[in-house]
Amino acid sequence: MFLFKHPPEAVPSDDPFSVPSANGSRPRHFSRSQLRPYSPEEILTLVQLNEITNIEIANRRKTARIGACTGTDSLSGAHGAKQYYVEDRRYSDLSLFRRALDPYIKDGVVSVLSVDGVMAAKLK
């Protein structure tokens, strides 16, 4: 994923695409051209059809990692139940996962930065 770093003074504080970095010292900046709108239904289809999916989404000053994963039994190596996640919260029910997406939906779409490490702007 291509993220551009700018000194804090180079990015206006009201810029909706400026996101503080993990250490909070410098903002991560991405352009609108790097985002691709997905409907909530498209997100649900992605996580349902794939055993493991990692999606990076953005909405104003928030970014989040969402997706699907399956647990594995460390002794047998067998796959466990599929779970969906938004950041550190896990959901076994798809409807709860869908509700957790609500803060990231604007004008009926979720702004996606990447899907499984591929820039969303390059998909489709």
Describe, in plain words, how this protein is organized in 3D.
This protein is mainly beta and 124 residues long. It has one domain (33-122). It has two helices and eleven strands, in the order ββββαββββαβββ. Strands 4, 5, 6, 7, 8, 9, 10 and 11 form an eight-stranded antiparallel β-sheet that branches. Strands 1-3-2 form a three-stranded antiparallel β-sheet, with no helix packed on it. The longest helix is centred in the middle third of the chain and has 10 residues, at 40-49.
Broad shape: globular
Separation of the first and last Cα atoms: 16 Å
Strand % is: 35-45%
Radius of gyration from CA coordinates: 16 Å
Describe the biggest sheet?
8 strands, antiparallel
SSE topology sketch:
Elements: E1 4-5, E2 18-20, E3 27-29, E4 36-38, H1 40-49, E5 53-59, E6 62-72, E7 79-86, E8 89-91, H2 94-100, E9 105-106, E10 109-115, E11 118-119
Antiparallel strand pairs: 1-3, 2-3, 4-10, 5-6, 5-10, 6-7, 7-8, 9-10, 10-11
